[in-house]
Amino acid sequence: MSTLALTKQESLDHWPELFLQDEIRAAYHLALLEWPYSRYAAWQHHHGPDGEIDAAVTFYSLSRPTIVFLLGDASSVAECLAAAEPPGCAYLAFFPEHAGMLNGFYRMPRHTQMTRMVLRRDDFERRAEASGGDPRTVVLDGGRTHLAPLEELYSHEAGLRPDRYQFDRGRYVGIFDRGKLVSAAGTHFVSRNGSFAMIGNVFTHPDHRQEGLGRAAVIELLRRTFAGVQKVCLNVRTSNRAAVNLYESLGFAAHCTYCEGMSVLGPALATAAPKPPSGEF
Length: 281
What we know:
The protein is an alpha+beta fold. It folds into 2 domains: 2-105; 116-258, Gcn5-related N-acetyltransferase (GNAT) (Aminopeptidase, 3-Layer(aba) Sandwich), CATH 3.40.630. 23% of the residues lie in helices and 32% in strands. The chain is built from 9 helices and 13 strands. It has helices spanning 17-20, 27-31, 74-83, 99-102, 121-125, 144-154, 164-167, 213-225, 241-249, and strands at 2-4, 41-47, 53-60, 66-72, 89-94, 106-107, 112-120, 137-139, 173-177, 180-191, 196-204, 231-237, 253-265. Strands 1, 2, 3, 4, 5, 6, 7, 8, 9, 10, 11, 12 and 13 form a 13-stranded mixed β-sheet that branches. The longest helix has 13 residues, at 213-225. The protein is globular and about 60 Å long. Residues 1-13 and 270-281 have low confidence and may be disordered.
């Protein structure tokens, strides 16, 4: 068992083999190894009989509450959690094989099944959408001019808010209608080492649905993002067939499913003193 806290960008040579076996499945773990995300992340690793890492728990404390990502053998993940000093509440992201084990650690009233989808640059460039953008779509400038309209748009969806680090670097796009921001899409992570990005925060104002705005925003974001990476991933609720159909129409393919949801410290870890999540957007 080992705990690893990184404070600088790591090269590909330092990445555990567990993360490289399926880079899409391990996307968040990989991205959080890189600067600047690593400033807010810590890892609990479990080593198997061969000495290789067979499980990892990643704690990302920039958000409130802390987000906890699980990866690897379920029994080894359980040992990681038992050895960690867990937050009193957390937002868990885990795979189906971890569900039963988690009952002994966290109380989770409900969770959402998500589908992780992936699109490769070569596949996107062969599509007509890659040849030109929608003139209504603009890059949000990362300054105060566009921040307030974006926050107002996202206020229509509970829990949705911009990632300030990505927003400040111009990694959000939006569509305005008569001076009002009505649709937007943004970026969660960009992994230069792994040459992939995770996009999300796609939202269209309820009064402007069925106008193709979300599709236009995603296409423009893809055109810009693929200038620097080979793969783009996104997460979508498995039950949201309209969104899944939209992404499939752009060439995305389902890669894996996982679950996420709010949780509070359960009886199995009650002896560890809970700490409030640290960091903020």
